[in-house]
Specification:
mainly alpha
């Protein structure tokens, strides 16, 4: 008999895999494309992405995957597999939620309120941290 843990684990694997794909795509393709644009156009594009993403399936997937792995941490049975599940879940939460809350959201908020004097500086910070963000966000994959 299959308990509810197996379907929860399957959903967690699928949802975290989708999130890893989103982060990978954004870091590797979208940020590279935006880097090739003039600063004003890139900032407008990034602000548009930030507006659209919070009204898409991203947020339910973002929070749902986090809740699933948190649930798996809480209801573990203490077996050998639990060590791997808990470790992967903690790494995912730190990589996904931690990086988003500490780096991405504050930078997106700064970009939303950018002015003529600091737009090049803010955009440069975003491009630089985007490179570092690849390591941070892809920690969820490992």
């Amino acid at each position: 008999m299959i308990s509810w843990i197996e379907p929860a684990l399957l959903l967690a694997v699928l949802s975290t895999g989708l999130m890893a794909g989103i982060y990978f795509t954004f870091s590797v393709f979208v940020m590279r494309a935006l880097k090739r644009l003039p600063v004003d156009v890139a900032i407008a594009c990034m602000n548009s992405i930030n507006t659209v993403i919070v009204k898409s399936a991203f947020l339910p997937l973002f929070f749902g995957s986090g809740l699933l792995v948190l649930l798996l941490i809480i209801v573990n049975d203490g077996g050998l597999a639990s060590v791997w599940i808990i470790s992967a879940s903690v790494i995912y939460l730190l990589g996904m939620l931690g990086c988003t809350v500490v780096f991405n959201v504050p930078l997106n908020n700064r970009l939303q309120s950018v002015n003529a004097e600091n737009k090049a500086l803010i955009w440069g910070i975003i491009l630089f941290t985007g490179r570092a963000g690849i390591i941070c966000e892809l920690s969820a994959v490992w």
